[in-house]
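Hello again, I could really use a second opinion on something today. I've been staring at a protein lately and its backbone has me curious. Can you walk me through what the C-alpha cells say about the fold? Take your time with it, there's no hurry, and the full record follows here:
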Amino acid sequence: MDSITTTAQTWLSDFFDADTKKEVQHLLENDTEELKERFYKNLEFGTGGMRGIMGVGTNRINKYTLGKNTQGLSNYLRKVHGDTEIKVVIAYDCRHNSDTLARTVAEIFSANGIKVFLFSELRTTPELSFAVRHLDCQAGIVLTASHNPPEYNGYKVYWSDGCQIVPPQDGEIIAEIDALSFEDIELDANEDLIQLIDKDVDEAFFEASVAKGSFDAKGKENFKIVFTSLHGTSITAIPEVLKRAGYNNVTVIEEQAKPDGNFPTVESPNPEEPAALAMAIKKAEEIGADMVVGTDPDSDRLGIAVRNSEGRIELLNGNQTMIMMTKFLLDKFKEKGLRGNEFVASTIVSTPMMQQMAKTYGVECKTSLTGFKWIGKMIKDFPDSQFIGGGEESFGYMVGDFVRDKDAVTSTLLACEIGADAKAKGSSFYQELINCYVQFGFYKEKLISLTKKGMSGAEEIKQMLIDFKENPVDSVQGSKVVWIEDYNTSIAKNVQTGAEKPIDLPKSNVLIYETEDGTRIAARPSGTEPKVKFYMSTNATLDKTEDFKSVNSQLDAKLDGIVSELNL
C-alpha cells in the first residue's frame, strides 16, 4: 500500500490540474480501497489496445494517461522516422469524453511537431483504419472502448498499414511510454498542424465499402432490413453504404439512432447479447423483415439476426456469421477462378469449421491468436498471397484488405448481399447456413464469460487459469483428451503418445484441450475486459437438412454437459 500511496501523491504536483489534485487528495484521506483500484497499476495494452474506466489515476482513462501514451508514441515515431514529415489521423466514438480526449491527443501530437488529421465528428473504427492509408499517415488513433459499459473509454493505436500495432512496435512503444514521467508530456499545441477532416474521407470510404462488399445480388428491392446503431457511430456510415448499394428497404431504429454514451435503451451495447437487439428484433417481427443488423459503438462488430426454419427472427453467433460470409466470398472467388495463393483467416478460439470449409475449396485458412490485429498482420506478412476475408467468434469480420481491422460497415453490406441473393433463389440466409453444416460438418460453439472486477478479480482470473492448467481435463463428455495446446509455452502435447509439437504463434495466456471426437475447450483472459473466457466447440455429422433440428438439440445438450462438467 505504501507504493500505491506514493504513486498517488505524485499526482498532487503542480503539473496536474486543480480538480485532479482535489480528487486524489480526497481518495488519500477518505477512500483507501478506491485509491488502490485507481493506482495499483498502470493501464496496459491488451488485444484491442488500452481500455479502462474513466477517472483519475494511473489505472484509469484520463487526459494524463492518454497524454503519456501519446507522448511516448510521438517519441517513437520521431525515433523511427527522424525529421521527415509525420502524419497521424485520429477518430473517436460516441463515448463520454471521447471528443475532448481526442482533442487532447491531437494537441499533444501537434506539440511534438506531428501533423494531425482529426475527424470533426465521431466516425467508425473501420473508417479510421481506412483513413490511415488513404491519407498516407504513419499512425492512427481511435478513442473507443468498443462494447464495454458506459464508464469505459479506450485508445487504440494503428500503424502505417492501417492495422493495430503488433510486435515489435507495441513493445517498443510501451518502452517509450514507460520511460516517461507525466511531466514529460508536451502540452503546447501547434494549431497549424491540426486539420479537421470529414466528408472527403467519408466519400472515399463509402465508395470502397460498396466496391468491396457488393456483389450485384438479385432481389434487393424485396429484401427488408432493420438496422440499429445501438447509439453508436455506425449511423454515420451503414445507412448510406446500404443505400448506395441499392438497399432502399431499410428501417432504422430511431430510438437508438442518436449517438449517446449512456446507451440508454440497452443494458449493454454489445451485439453479441440478444437483449441488445431486442428492440430491432421486435420491429422486424412487426414489419416482416428478413434481417436485423446491429453494431457496437465503434462499428467494428456486428450482430446478424435472420428468420430461422420456423420463421422467427434468431440472432446468429459470430462463428455462424463468419462461416456464411466466408463461404459466400469463396464462391465468388471460385467463380472467377482461384489461383492458389488465396487465404482466409480465423483465430484459435473460433470454430474449426473454417478450416474444414477452406480445405474443401483448396484454400488455406491461416489461424491467429485472438484479436484482429493478428489477422491484419497476416496481410503484411504474406504479401504474395491474396486475403479473401476472415473473422473471429466475437462478431467481427473483415472483407478484403482495404480496411485492416474488423469492419461492421462492409460486413453489414456483405450480409445483406448473402440474404438477398438467397431469398431471390428461393432459399434464405438460415437455410444456406444449414446447407453449410451438411457440406462441411455441423460445428457448434458456446462461450462462457465470467466477469471478475478490480484488483482481487485480476488475481482470481490468474488463479482460475493456473488451476485449469495444473488440473488438466482428461475427458470431455466421454471423449478422451488427445491434445493440450499451451500457448504460454508454445507447445502442443499429445497426452496419449507423449509427442510434442511447437506452436508457431506468439506466446499468449491460452490453454486449449482437444478430444478424440474433435471437441475443443479453450480458456483465456480477456485482453480488454476484467473477464476470463471459456470457449467450447463440438461437432457432428448432418446427413440431410431435415435432421438439423434433432442434431442441433444433441449438440446443445453436449455443450450444456461440458459447462456442467467444468463447473462453470
